[in-house]
C-alpha cells in the first residue's frame, strides 16, 4: 500500500519529533542536541546585535559561549549559568569603573595597578568554591576595560553586549534541556545488565580471568565513577536529597563488590559432587537473580515501574546441609548477600520512581 505524500510527511514529522521527546533518544543524541542549541543561540545573538546595529556585538556571542558552551545538563545549568552570569556582571561593572578612573585621572599606571589587583582577587577566589564567578569576573573586567584606554561609550556598549549575551544564553539553556537524570538512569541500567552478564559467567562456569570478564569488571568501575559525578545534578533535577542517591550508589557498589568476591571464589573445589549439589540447589535462585537484575535495568530504561514490584520471598539456603568446605560456605553466603542487595536496590528505586521516571 502506497502512502500519500501527506501521510509520509506526517510520519516523518512524528519520527523527527520522537527523536526530541523520547528520553532515551535524547540521551543517545545529547551531544548533537547540545551542539544545535549552542549554534542556534549564536545565530540568535548575531541576528539580534546585527539587526539593531549594536557596536561590538561579537561580545554577545562570546558571552553566549562562555555561559552555556560547556553546560549540558539542566541540573548544572541552573546553578552554573547563574554563577557565570553573576561573574560576567561583576566583571563588566569593574571594567566600567576602571574606564572612569582612567578618564578622570589619566594615570595609566594607576589603572594598570587596579586592573592587576582586580584580576589578582579573581585569581584568589577562582581556586575556591566561587571559582566560576571569580574567573569570569576577571575575564569580563579585561574585556570591558581593555587596558583602561577604552572610551566610556565603548565600555557601556560592551557591557550591553554582555548582558544581551547572558539573556540569550539563559533562554537557550532551558530550550530542549538535557537531563542528567537520563544519563544516570541509562548508565545505571547498562551497569545492571553488565552485573547480570558477570553473574551468568560466574555461575555458568566460564573462565573468570579472560578478556571479556576483565572488560566487564573495568566497565563496572567506570560506571560507578560516572554515576557519582552525575548525582549532584540529578538531585537538583528530581528534587531528591543527595543522601537518597548516595544510598542507591552504596547499594550498587555492594552488588558489584559481591560479584567481585564471587569471581574470586568461583566455586573452587576438588569435590565435584559437593559442587554439583550446590549448583543444583542454587539453580532457582540463580534465575531469580538474573531476572531481578534485568528487570531493574528495563524499569530504568523504559520507565516500566511495574518491574520493580517485590518478588515472592524464597526459602534461604541451608549451608550446613552441604557439609561444604569454608570456601563454598562463603560462596553460598555471598550468594544470599547479593540477592539481599539487589532487593534493596529494587526497593529504593521503586520508592523514588515518581521522581526519576521523567
UniProtKB/TrEMBL annotation:
It is a multi-pass membrane protein. The chain crosses the membrane at residues 32-52, 58-74, 86-103, 109-127, 132-150, 162-182. One of its GO terms (cellular component) is plasma membrane. Keywords: Cell membrane, Coiled coil, Membrane, Transmembrane, Transmembrane helix, Transport. It is found in: Cell membrane. GO terms for molecular function: transmembrane transporter activity. The keyword DNA-binding does not apply. InterPro entries: PHBA_efflux_AaeB/fusaric-R. Residues 328-355 form a coiled coil. This is FUSC family protein. It comes from Pararobbsia silviterrae.
